[in-house]
Give the backbone structure.
Amino acid sequence: MNRSDFPILEQSVNGKPLVYFDNAATTQKPQVVIDTLTDYYRTINSNIHRGVHYLSQKATEAFEEARRTVQAFINAPTPQEVIFTRGTTESINLIASSFGKRFLQADDEVLVSEMEHHANIVPWQLACEQSGAHLRVIPFNDAGELELDHLDNLLNERTRIVAVSHVSNTLGTINPIREIIQKAHAKKIPVMIDGAQAISHIPVDVQELDCDFYCFSGHKMYAPMGIGVMFGKAQWLNEMPPYQGGGEMIQRVTFEKTTYNELPFKFEAGTPAVGDVLGLKTAIDYIQQLGMARIAEREQALLNYATEKLSAISGLRIYGTSAEKTSLISFNLNNIHHFDVGFIIDKMGVAVRTGHHCTQPVMDHYHIPGTIRASFAFYNTEAEIDQLAAAIEKAKQMLG
Ligand code: PLP
């Protein structure tokens, strides 16, 4: 579907047509997004918000229009609650640092899950170290599903925030975040969602979810690298201190005291990545033209096809078998090291990811050092999945 929109996919690698199955790490970019970047630098490149001149006003208007596009895409109540960051990692660091300074005290608790990406563990550990709070963990079962029976006990009077992923980048599991949010809210505990792996696969409505924070990266949804979003409810953002100091985030600076700008600028210190923000807007327009429902349907078909094909390979074990999954498969082949399998698959022209995928606790759960992960986007094809299956068979033959 719409494969020809992505020029990078036309090349050959190791003498074979490129098969790109590393979409969970980053998606490829359609020509319209690439054009947006070059058009921006050719026509309106200028620093925003601070200039009265023509180019600065044009760039400012385009930048703020992009913010409204993101607002509508995730159905945020206001554009002021949409903060541009460098990506999910920076969004979570912002929340952990700023929320932590304002709301975490000694012996408080922060609740994450066992399947989080390191980007949703380490910032909270840093915040806990600074405040004396403790990290608590929702476990998952061998199918890769969160064990929510534990949730009622884990959510207690010391819990200050819950931070969980919408979709696991290693297992593909779509977590029941509505249920988690409802249970946490019943105890007046806010919830942050790491949406890095959900945003290109599932329609996200932050008002319907009623999440307090939602984070994602542009580059995992066909937009440029280096741009991301942190949605936060104004009620929290107004109470949280700035994350970084500098230009744009101030109202008035004197050597005695500085007052801060209003939302969203309070959290956007320094010159932002204007071209990349415009690229994000184009990517959202592109996704909406294709239609989220069509994308999801196509990706589920690819997932079903790949699951069937790969399950038929003897000695192949899939990690993450939840009924609710996005389009990725993590696996290992017999006891062969994941790196060796990945190396041979790459030589066959198929790009997959090997390793712990920044989820070492997930690897510890299964007592393995890593997996091979194939992650699909709508532009992939069944023929490419056949090529992956053939490459795995070849690896099995060669590595015994
Ligand atoms: N969270 C999840 C679930 C991810 O998959 C990733 C990246 O793979 C991140 C966070 C970090 O995203 P980024 O590197 O774009 O900041």
In short: Residues 292-399 form a domain with the Aspartate Aminotransferase, domain 1 fold (CATH 3.90.1150.10). The longest strand covers residues 159-165. The chain has 13 helices and 17 strands. The first helix runs from residue 31 to 43.
